[in-house]
Amino acid sequence: METLQILQTIWFFLIGFLFVGYSMLDGFDLGIGTMLPFMAKNKSEETAIISTIGPVWDGNEVWIITAGGALFAAFPHVYATVFSGFYLALMLVLFALIFRAVSLEFWSMDAGRRHVWKWSFAVGSFLPALLFGVALGNLIAGIPLNDKMEFTGSFFTLLRPFPLSIGLLGLSAILLQGCAYGILKTGGGIQDRFRHAAKKIWIAFIFCLALSASLSAVYLPQQLNNPLCWIFTALILALQISYRVTIDTKHETLLFVFSSLSFACLWALIGTIQFPYLARATGGPEFSLSVYNASSTETTLWVMLIIALVGMPFVIGYTAYVYKIFRGKVNQ
Amino acid sequence: MDAVMLSRIQFGLAAGFHFLFPPLTLGLTLIILVLETRYLHSDDGLYKKISTFLIKILALVFVMGTATGVVLEFSFGTNWAAYSRMVGDIFGSPLAAEGVFAFFMESVFLGVLVFGRNKVSKRVYWLSAFLVFFGAHMSGLWIIIANSWMQTPAGFKIDQGRAVLTDFLAAMFNDSTHLRFVHVVIGGWITGSLFVAGVSSWYILKKRDLASAKPLLSLALWVFISASLVQLAAGHLHSEQVAKTQPEKLATYEALWETTNGAPMSMIGIPDPDRKITHFEISIPKLLSFGIYLDPNAKVQGLNEFRKEDLPPIVITYLSYHFMVLLGFLFIAMSLIALFLKYRQKLYEAKWYLYALLFALPLPFASNLLGWMAAEIGRQPWAVYRVLRTADAASTVVPAWQILFTIIAFSVIYMLIFAVFLKLLIKIVKKGPEKVTLGYAED
After folding, report:
1. What span, in angstroms and rounded, lies between the C-alpha atoms of A74 and A10?
2. Residue partners of B409: CB distance under 8 A and separation at least 6
3. Cβ partners under 8 Å of residue A202, min gap 6
4. Residue B195 φ/ψ, nearest 5 degrees
5. Model confidence pLDDT, tens digit, residues A99-114
6. ipTM higher than the 0.90 cut
7. I need a surface site. Which of A165, B94, B99, B152 has the fewest CB within 10 A?
């Protein structure tokens, strides 16, 4: 392989790494946010649940901002095609992210309208949690692209069964992550409610997994012969079964680890199905955007690799340090 | 209206609204760092109290900046897909680097500032204040790098219709990066310091929270005085650079129609692009030539040397630039008065000046926006100067009605959150340094 191809492949994995980081970290606060109105019985419980994510959610969201920047830098054609093609859907995500970003700060100061900001945080968390998966599902199922790499579908192209099933799968994975974090950071009645929710959402997750697996047999029949797909699917199932049997135990950290690893395996499965494509085209592989035809130049990929290798270890280091500062259960 | 025009309006609204917040963040993080440094060394609870008060405000300002900043990053893909394809090889890196080197740091340690006062040692808390300050400024640096490359592109070649990177450092530290960074950061310090000075003045006028307000006013004014005076030099150097790297932009700033030996500096007037004259103009002979080249008879290129389709809109660029400069001189005047009052030790008694500080509080936001308009509208018709026209930069697949719809949605959302922001900001200020607490404990 030439250097350029190696770099393109590395960047496929690094973008994947940023998405895994986003899913694990912002995943739990998206999950907590979505469930907030249903988990808190009174004001003090609401404060307790929000306190679990208050100090860290903002840093977590930077993972998607960085992933966006990295995608722009490494694969500008994908950035351009997908963002302009999915215009209305992405704008909906943006509106949600705007409300989400201001909601907790507003909630903490605007005593008279706390319920408004609680719900805006919930909806602002729910929409990205669902729609990121739908967008991803579309890139897997394939979208109509012309020979100029431009999207030729409409808003409704995005709402096909398979992408919607991936949206639901992502949403349920995010909720499971949120439950695991909620169980880890709370106690008493709130913790019981997160445990109860985790069991129900677990069933939904397994259902969504089965649904999207069946649909993928229709959309991606060739993947049935790919042993890696079966391996990652088996790993996800094993981790999910471990998650299920750990819910009612005192191994709260382990539960979070199972959930996070399951998310990582979900991404590994998607990576296996997609590589080397970032966005498949319905019109055939010659229209698809792959790491080879959609990337930046070798120079830029090198520069970006150096930036990532120099910067990300610090990011991971101080993020871990700050989580350590805020470790333990929140006051209730 | 066509999709390109609508996308320009949307980006203008989104960037303009966003740019209210980051400069204030820069100034606030600087003053918080100074206060935390004093607290670390002196252990005086007063500094802790004042700093806590400002951190409360910073947290509110910061989320507004974050909420509106994500929109801009996405916009390059959603509304400016052709731009992203053509220059993504260069323009994407600073945005990614901003996340990796700056925004993570700023966001993660802001969490410690807001929620960690009782969980970490004084040294770690100080370090967090430093890293939030540093992260905010580095974030500004990477964004200015990206934007400066659009102004004075370097370190690239055109290959099959795409701009490709040939020299990373040349692209990042192009002709305008360092001067624009300094200019914007000092603008941020002026914004933050006048904001804090205005709030402190209000307390002193109201005769409340005096123990906090007086030292806070004093500190804020020192920052304000230094920043305003340094900005004179920084702004001048930046204009000089614009004259050399983007001559048609400088000619627009000055409404200099003909190429002139010994060009005058236009003080005020109303340019008339149709008749190519400036009405009611007051100008100082030879000052422009002298300012740029230190030679009163040096030649400065005029607008008539350029093709009309390569020139920016003249009236709005000229006026934005001149009102920005006017405000800059107003800040200098206010600084000199502050120095005089401090020297005479009459600062806290000079009611008229305290009122002036209070009413001047919004002005740096205006000068930031005017400067941004002068820079960005002044770069038109180019998205990337002499490389890519704005008209060729927009997404081709997004229908105009969808953009119109999102412009309306953004306007409604931004007005709503701005109203709440102002309400909560006033609430914090009314509560005052004595009563403000961090975290979710209150109410």
Report:
1. 10
2. A91, A95
3. A176, A240, A243, A244, A247
4. -60, -50
5. 999 999 999 998 889 9
6. yes
7. B152
